[in-house]
Each structure stands twice: as structure tokens, then as C-alpha cells.
Amino acid sequence: MSDWVLKAEGLSKGFTLHLQGGVRIPVLRDAGLVVAPGECVALSGPSGAGKSTLMRLLQGNYGADEGAILICRADGSVADLATASPREVNGLRRDTIGHVSQFLRVIPRVPALEVVAAPLLARGVARELALARAQALLRRLNLPDRLHALPPATFSGGEQQRVNLARGFVADFPLVLLDEPTASLDAANREVVIALIGEAKARGAALVGIFHDLDVRGRVADRVVEVLPLREAA
Amino acid sequence: MMADDEPILSARGLSLSFGAVRALDEVSIDLWPGEVLAIVGESGSGKSTLLRALAGEMRPDAGRVTYRDASGEALEVHAMGEPALRRLARTEWGFVRQDARDGLRMGVSAGGNVGERLMAVGARHYGDIRTEAERWLERVEISPSRIDDRPGQFSGGMRQRLQIARTLVTRPRLVFMDEPTGGLDVSVQARLLDLIRGLVSDLGIAVVLVTHDIAAARLLAHRLVVMRHGRVVEEGLTDRVLDDPRHPYTQLLVSSVLAA
Amino acid sequence: MTTEGYNFAYLDEGTKRMIRRALLKAVAVPGHQVPFGSREMPLPYGWGTGGIQVTASVVGPDDVLKVIDQGADDTTNAVSIRRFFARVAPGLRTTERTAEATIIQTRHRIPETPLREGQVMVYQVPQPEPLFKLEPRRAETKRLHALADYGLMQVKLYEDIARHGRVGSSYDHPVMVGGRYLMAPSPIPSFDNPKMHLSPALQLFGAGRERRLYAVPPYTEVRSLDFDDHPFVPLRASGSCALCGADHTYLDEMVTDDRGGRLFVCSDTDYCGERQEQQAAERAA
């Protein structure tokens, strides 16, 4: 096993807005981040500094202009997310990178239980087992059973967030990305999330998160990495 | 587990001109088993022409299309001859047309429409064909009690669902879809898209989807190809192309859609 | 009507040769439709112009011709065609007896008397394309035949069962010839379809308006399309002939009065007549 799960080096990212006369907006320059197994790293910095951009790069949602994003798979092989083909990225998302975004991208008519079980089903876990694990996790996050069979489109923000969290933690991803995972949760559910993060660390997962709740951050993060706006960083 | 390290469909250097218009200009794409590839672009971008060239319905001036069949053999789509191509079209392939009237037999009952592909591959037991047709009508959310009704008595959304049942009943490995939600009401579109998404992932079908609907592409596709003036201007992971578009035309396309 | 100035059997030798060539091709590819240059005949399309041209091309002065329409030798169409050939083919004999005939031109029936080697059946065909109602484009049906892509025909049979509860039509029920070509047997009752199967006679089909010929050589497999669980069943009215008592022949229904009275008689008048003669002879003996 490698001594890191995620090793990002020399990352640069900017946006060229062709519709606005080709203006170029640099966001990250020569950014780097190394996360060890069992470690949780919190990203901090003023809003607009590039935390979200970095998270999106780590998830493969944005493409890096320069640099490498090395990710160690469960079998020990290493992939570079920055240069991986779309199929490889999809493979990494299936097996290696778990992601809890701030907002749930709702798929019409798919029940909450299916949304949560999807990562397991995609890996070929037997349907009954996948649904059972999904249900157990939703119960742990205090989502009432009557909601499990309903599509989350009509759920409240907090309910949707819990569906999202369950989806991110249902499979044992080696790398878990958390984008404000407790933003709309009550105290009890915040405790559940803190416990889930602790368990993920205990099984050797690497976690990277943006936590606006400083109390939560203090309890889960092993390290805080500052992401500064480019002018200040330079 | 299927051998998914080889593409199921590959196109190399496809070019096709209609007079002075270059409908396809050096287009190359790959599709892997079980993968959904969306081709987006405005009308006239060449996306429908590309679909027809991939499916062997239109012969390119240059370039070639290779299909790897169920036995692993690589077949040249434009060199295999009509009998082999037709056999493929009714066994391992399927085609869902924008206008269900082009993909259905309007004079034949719903059951006959779904049963046709079964019969074309040799099914000769009426009871079995009917049972399978009923099962598929249910699967596409059409009441089996409508099995003897003709498509003319169906709504637009139902017709399109019937076309999907008719296409998928023989479990093809590769399905071409040309604007499957075009011309339908928005609410009807959502239901249809969701149905397609479920069926495609359940059956593990590879799909080439032509659409101008960015939201449909985001919901269904693993990968996206953006076409303009017969060329591929950008391609990649669906969410990356849509959230981090590089090419000016892709940025225009994405910005002209409300919260896709 | 005088026959002077007309070639034997009305058609000129060049036309006959052209039709015979098409017939040879048709015999060589059983069930396959061969185009031919249909000529103007002295009767309108729909009255057997295709059959007449085939008969005219194969008939010789030594032949014995029988013509039937709806199974009967004495209906207008049968009588006029028989009379036509008697006039334009000197030496040709005509008959109403199936067993005596060398050529039998027919519309709607195959005789009940089993055919034998050396006999030629000539069918008058209004629509030679079995897929016509399902696929109106001629180019497309040709392609379907070339590829033996007959799922569409099976769809029609499916529709028949779904709608009427049984396979097929009561007449012109499609057949597969020699395991290769789908063929319209012409508007004969499905009851007659099995008679085509492995028949010792040569069967020729002519469609004048559609300009198509096709053929089934002797001893060729002819199978009626069906489903495993809805096998093809030759249909006949249940009952027996009021004249000869036959309970195994194809029957026509006759209305005998205006109070719903009706009876059945053999559609094949020759066969029925022979049976009656035989029965009379047995009674006399």
C-alpha cells in the first residue's frame, strides 16, 4: 500500500471565457495536495479562492490545465486523473472516488433507496445486499422509512443532503470528497456524519472536505490546507 | 463480464459531402460496450448524418466504421453487404427514430410491433411471443390490455415507448437513438428519458444518442461529443464537457441552456 | 369469330418464346416471381389474362384443356376461356374431366381429383406479391425476398390470430416454397394449400396485370405458414355435399329459399358429377 491515496502536484486551472471576448480567469496555479490513508484534510480559504475548483478537479468534473492528480486504487495501481480518459474517470468514480456534493442531482422518478444503492449496484454488488445496506445507512441518518421508496425531488434540503451522504458512504471508496457535507443538517445528524467520517478514516480511506462548520472541521480534520486567492498566493 | 477493453463500435476519418456542404469532416469516435455516448450539436451540425453513417444507413465518402460483434469478430459496417447488415440491424442492433411513425408499423397492433423482431429471429410460438410482448409493454409502462390496439390510437409518448419496447425486445447490444424525445411535451420527455436511462443501464446496452437536448445528454450519457459543421469540436466526460467546456462553440451551447 | 390471321393459341411465337423463357426461369427458382412482358389480350385484366398467356405459351395441338372458375367448368369465365382456346388452337381438345386434362387453367380452386405426373396446373393470379398488403414498395419487397426476410409475413399471421383467433386467411394463405421463397398461392381456399405440397403436376402461375410469373415444379415442398401453437388447418364448411354426399371436399353454400334454407354442394362440379355417376352405376348394378 502506498503512503498516500491522493497526490496532486503542480495543478493549474483557469477558465477562458470565449463568449466574453476570450478573457482568461486563472484560479489555481501550481497547487498541490497529498492525503494519506486514514487522513482527513480540510480545505480552507476565502470564498472564491478556488476550494470548489480544486474539489471539482479532484472529482474529475473539471479538467486540469497542468499538473497531475495521482490516485491510488484499492488494488494499489495508480491513475492520473488529470490525463485519464473519460472511461478511466468513470471507472475511478465507480470504484475509487466517492463524492458528496452540496446538492443532490435529482434523477426523476428514481426512489431514494435506489439512488443510495446505485454505487454498489454499479460495482456489481447483488441487488438485495445493496438495497439492504442502503436502507441501513438511510436509517442511521434518520431518514424515515416512508421516504425510502420516494424520489428525493420533493424532499427538503436536509433530507436530500442525507440521501447524498448515504450515497457517498454506502460503498467503501478509498477516496471520499466532501463538499460541505453538514450544511443543512441538525445536530443529531451532524453527529452521524462525524461518526461516518471517523469510520471511513478507520478503514483507511483518505478524505478531502470543505467544512464551513468549524466545530465539525475541528473534530474530523487531521490537517487544514489553505487555498488562497492567486494574488495573495503569488 | 464482457470484454470491454475493445470498442464495440469505432469510426475513423468519416467524411461525407452533399455537394459543397461537408456534412461529416474527418470524424472519428469510439464506443465501448455498455457505454452511452451522446452526440450534441445544433441542427445541421452533422450529428444525424453521423448516426446514419455509423448505422450503415448512409455510406461515407471516406473513412470506415468497425463493429465488434457478439462473437468478438470485427466487422466493417460499410463493406459487409446488405444481407449481413440487415441481419445485424434486426439482431444485435436497434434504431430508435425521432418520429415513432418511422420506427413502428402503424397498421400493426402494439403486440405485433413488439413481436416482429422476435419473429424475425425465428420465434414461431404465438403464445410465447404474446407473453413476451405483454411483458415488454409493461416494462415501458403501457398497459398490456392495449396489446391489440394500433399505434395510431396511442399518444406521442406512448408511441415512442412502444418503439423502444419493439427495439429492445431482442436485447440488442448496440442501439442508435435519433432525438428520441424530440417533438414530445416536456413532462412526457422526462418520463421517457428516465425510462430509457433505466432500461439501458439494466440491460447494459451501448447507445449512440443524437440529441440537441443538453439535459437529456447529461442524464443519459457517459460521454459527450459536440459537433459543429460536420466536425467534432469537443469530446469527453459528459459532466466535464458541460461544466468545464473549452471550445467557444461548446460554451455557447451550454450557456444557451437553462440549468442543464 | 374466325381464327384466320391468328397464330396457334393466339400469341405470336416470339411472345411465346419470351414467356417460356420466363417460365423456365420460374421453374428453376421455385416460388420466385419472374417479370414478363404481359401482352394485351382480348379480355380485360382480372379475367385471367396472366393464366391465358401461360396456357397459350405451353399448349400444343395434342393437349387436352380444362378450365375451371370457382371449381366449376360451366361458369362464364371458364366457358369463355375454354371457347377462346378451342377457336384459336386448332386440334386442341377441351374437357371437363380432371383426369383427362393435360393442362388445367384455374381460378380459385385445385381439383379434388389428385393430379398426376405430366399434368400442368395454370393459376390465374390477381396479386403475385404475398407481402403486398404489408409492404407496398415493390423495391422493398424484392429486397425482402432476396434476403428471405419474412418476419413481416409472420407479423400478419400474428395479427390474424390476435384479431380472429386463428391463423391465416381462408384463401390465398401464404406458403413457403422449397424452404426458400414466400409465395402467394393465388386466391385458392386454404383448404387447397396442402394439394400443392409435393404435387406430381407442374404448377405455373400467371399475373397479367402485375406482369409476373412464378412456378412450383413437381414434387416441391410447399408449406403453409403458421405458428407452432396455432398450426395451419385447411378450412372447409362442416357438412357434406347435398348431391354426392362427399364429406371431404370443399363445399359451396347454396341458398335454397328466402326463409334461411341452405345446403352445401361440392365446389368441384366435375368431381361431384363423377361421384354421382358412380353412385348411380352402383345402384343400377
UniProtKB/TrEMBL annotation, chain A:
Coiled coil: none annotated. It comes from the Bacteria. The keyword Zinc does not apply. The keyword Lyase applies. This is Phosphonate C-P lyase system protein PhnL. SUPFAM superfamilies: P-loop containing nucleoside triphosphate hydrolases. One of its GO terms (molecular function) is lyase activity.
Automatic annotation (TrEMBL), chain C:
The keyword Cell membrane does not apply. Keywords: 4Fe-4S, Iron, Iron-sulfur, Lyase, Metal-binding, S-adenosyl-L-methionine. Pfam families: PhnJ. It comes from the Bacteria. It catalyses: alpha-D-ribose 1-methylphosphonate 5-phosphate + AH2 + S-adenosyl-L-methionine = alpha-D-ribose 1,2-cyclic phosphate 5-phosphate + methane + 5'-deoxyadenosine + L-methionine + A + H(+). Its EC number is 4.7.1.1. Catalyzes the breakage of the C-P bond in alpha-D-ribose 1-methylphosphonate 5-phosphate (PRPn) forming alpha-D-ribose. Belongs to the PhnJ family. This is Alpha-D-ribose 1-methylphosphonate 5-phosphate C-P lyase. It comes from Pararoseomonas baculiformis.
